[in-house]
Write a sequence for this structure.
């Protein structure tokens, strides 16, 4: 399901299936996309931030078109305790690899992988930050 | 002192980053001029210089720009000028300057402190004139000093920084408007939006944002730009933050994201060069 911003329209609440993972897409070429994400984050229930949220940054192939500061993105990942993934949509290989990664994350968040829960994402992140 | 660099003002310069030059000697500038001259003549014989038609003689001058440096550690600027001497009028031997390019390093300690003895750091190169000449001169330097030239692009983030920084600069006479140009992506036809702001209004806004004079933070630049974007949105319902900032023009200087700069005030020349040197060094590292 794709949405340009949150909250989702309440009229369809009763028809909507359970949400297992929210991927916030930030286009590094657009400051507006970052502001939009920041506003949308306020509408997300706190329980999602236990591994069911991740940030996907696109447009990273062309750093010369950067309108968003990297520090702002790292800070976002830190504040919301969620992983930050990078993807260049224009390159098929990276696009496919990222899609597979997200799919894997979704399987874990939906509880389809025995022994691994969404909570593991949080602890994985903290370990690499300490390194 | 401002007289000597006055010729650099109000001209459009294309920017390049240059890796450190191996075994470059500031004492051999005359030799370099002769060598470069011979190289250009040879290239012309091969038919690589594009000037078609009249058989013209190219004169090369290489000189030092001692005022163009930041700290004492910086290597002084080097200027290369190409002039055409028309053989038809050998009597008057009129010389017309057709191309100029200069290397400089302003507060480039970050680069020069990490580089071995035999290397000279002049990370910023600015060229004005036909691309074909830039290409020939660049080839000679690359071959002779084992360095590499790359076009220096300026990101929208860096352009925002320049907009804020230059707005804060004090200028004596009544100045031109501050202009920001945005390119709108994802449209079937190219669309540019030009946003002109009265320089006094821009300065008044910046003065309310900047907390410590002489210091600028990323946060202050963001607030400044956000105010300008909100103001525009209020009037035109367009989110400039979703577009790409491609050009900034102020009374101090104007800069384009393709790596093109114009200096307008000699008192701020060093300041702008310092910023450009930093960008060039980032691109090299």
């Amino acid at each position: 399901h794709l949405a340009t911003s949150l909250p989702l329209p309440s009229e369809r609440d009763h028809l909507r299936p359970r949400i297992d993972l929210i991927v916030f897409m930030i286009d590094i070429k657009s400051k507006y996309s970052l502001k939009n994400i920041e506003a949308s984050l306020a509408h997300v229930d706190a329980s999602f931030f236990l591994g069911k949220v991740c940030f996907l940054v696109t447009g990273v192939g062309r750093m010369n078109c950067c309108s968003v500061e990297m520090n702002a993105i790292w800070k976002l990942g830190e504040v919301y305790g969620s992983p930050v993934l990078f993807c260049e949509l224009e390159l098929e290989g990276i696009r496919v690899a990222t899609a597979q990664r997200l799919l894997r994350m979704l399987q874990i968040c939906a509880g389809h992988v025995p022994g691994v829960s969404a909570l593991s994402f949080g602890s994985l992140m903290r370990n690499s930050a300490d390194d | 002192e401002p007289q000597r660099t006055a010729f650099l003002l109000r001209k459009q310069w294309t920017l390049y980053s240059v890796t450190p030059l191996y075994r470059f000697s500031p004492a051999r500038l005359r030799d370099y001029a002769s060598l470069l001259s011979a190289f250009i003549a040879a290239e012309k014989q091969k038919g690589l210089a594009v000037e078609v038609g009249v058989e013209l003689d190219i004169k090369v001058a290489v000189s030092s720009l001692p005022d163009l440096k930041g700290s004492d550690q910086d290597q002084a600027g080097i200027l290369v000028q190409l002039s055409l001497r028309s053989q038809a009028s050998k009597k008057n031997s009129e010389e017309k300057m057709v191309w100029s390019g200069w290397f400089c390093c302003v507060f480039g300690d970050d680069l020069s402190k990490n580089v071995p003895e035999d290397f000279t750091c002049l990370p910023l190169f600015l060229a004005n004139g036909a691309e074909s000449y830039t290409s020939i001169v660049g080839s000679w330097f690359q071959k002779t000093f084992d360095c590499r030239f790359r076009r220096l692009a300026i990101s929208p983030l860096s352009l925002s920084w320049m907009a804020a920084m230059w707005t804060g600069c004090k200028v004596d006479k009544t100045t031109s408007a501050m202009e920001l140009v945005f390119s709108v992506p994802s449209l079937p036809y190219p669309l540019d939006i030009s946003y002109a702001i009265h320089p006094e209004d821009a300065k008044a806004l910046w003065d309310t944002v900047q907390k410590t004079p002489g210091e600028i933070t990323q946060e202050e630049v963001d607030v400044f730009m956000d105010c300008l974007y909100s103001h525009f949105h209020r009037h035109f319902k367009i989110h400039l933050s979703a577009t790409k900032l491609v050009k900034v023009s102020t009374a101090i200087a104007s800069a384009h994201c393709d790596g093109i700069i114009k200096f307008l005030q000699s008192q701020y020349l060093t300041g702008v060069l310092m910023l450009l040197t930093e960008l060039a060094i980032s691109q090299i590292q």
